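// run 5 | inverse folding | seed 20
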């Protein structure tokens, strides 16, 4: 039995989802709530849907399969480009996907026609962020080819900005993305259904900070809804958001005497990313971690069996959610 417990408040997640949907709507955007941070956990997904989210998004086909197996019938968006071998499960599990490689989209088209389906595709643009996407100059030709494929509905363009990117880079990138979307739409003489601007950091830029929206109408949001902030590097709670959506609790298994004293917890890098653990008890500080142990500095005496609690950054939550050594406990129903 695991001594590491992850406490979840689905009602708080639902309230964050509701606020996100409303703020995004005011900024001219719809929201796809990202479930990869919770490994596609069905109870969290239901909390997101209860908050008014209509589409769920994930980067792992295994997580989409988990959602479908639990009975969730909401539209699902795959947010990592498919490998060629994954064309069949992509079409089977996802209503739409983010893609970069035209040849992969052609394989998706074949699978969609075989199943009598239409699969939506958002073509990703590389805005010099080091992530997936085509260079802007190659996008118009790729968009024309994708739009011509039977079995595929070309939805539009998308981009991603890392959490380390600056607001200036995001603003410039969004202008480039939206200008490119207008060019592609003009060539096809049909407006694009989707211009997907990115994640929680872009949500803060447009919907919280109020920067003028150059034409984005879709956002893929995980961190803001699940944890109440826009970036784990600077975990400042967004106005009106709830931060106590998830709480990690781990047990002290050894105390080191000294001034100040230190403790070893039954928690390691196998389960969690220690840089993104934020102690709830005053004076506790994370020192270092091995695969099996977490060393923390304490403000005072402790003994084996004591439990320490932590808020989480997104990388920590994602690793915990994927670990079989963590016990989930849901606090209150939605």
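// decoded
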């Amino acid at each position: 039995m695991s001594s590491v417990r992850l406490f979840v408040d689905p009602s708080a997640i639902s309230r964050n989802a509701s606020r996100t949907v409303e703020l995004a709507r005011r900024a001219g955007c719809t929201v796809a709530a990202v479930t990869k941070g919770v490994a596609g956990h069905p109870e969290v997904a239901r909390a997101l849907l209860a908050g008014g989210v209509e589409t769920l998004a994930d980067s792992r086909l295994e997580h989409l399969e988990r959602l479908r197996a639990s009975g969730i019938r909401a539209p699902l968006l795959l947010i990592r480009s498919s490998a060629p071998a994954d064309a069949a499960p992509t079409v089977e599990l996802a209503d739409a996907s983010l893609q970069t490689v035209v040849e992969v989209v052609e394989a998706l088209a074949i699978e969609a026609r075989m199943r009598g389906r239409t699969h939506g595709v958002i073509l990703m643009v590389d805005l010099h962020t080091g992530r997936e996407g085509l260079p802007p100059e190659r996008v118009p030709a790729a968009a024309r080819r994708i739009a011509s494929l039977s079995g595929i509905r070309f939805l539009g363009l998308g981009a991603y900005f890392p959490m380390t990117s600056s607001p200036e880079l995001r603003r410039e990138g969004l202008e480039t993305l939206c200008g490119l979307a207008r060019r592609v739409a003009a060539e096809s003489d049909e407006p694009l259904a989707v211009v997907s601007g990115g994640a929680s950091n872009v949500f803060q830029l447009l919907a919280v900070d109020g920067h003028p929206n150059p034409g984005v109408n879709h956002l893929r949001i995980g961190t803001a809804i699940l944890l109440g902030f826009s970036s784990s590097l600077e975990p400042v709670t967004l106005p009106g958001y709830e931060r106590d959506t998830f709480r990690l609790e781990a047990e002290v298994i050894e105390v080191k005497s000294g001034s100040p004293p230190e403790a070893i917890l039954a928690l390691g890098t196998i389960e969690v990313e220690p840089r993104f653990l934020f102690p709830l008890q005053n004076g506790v500080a994370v020192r270092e971690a091995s695969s099996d142990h977490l060393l923390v500095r304490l403000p005072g005496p402790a003994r084996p069996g004591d439990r320490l609690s932590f808020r989480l950054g997104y990388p920590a939550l994602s690793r915990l959610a994927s670990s079989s050594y963590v016990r989930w406990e849901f606090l209150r129903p939605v």
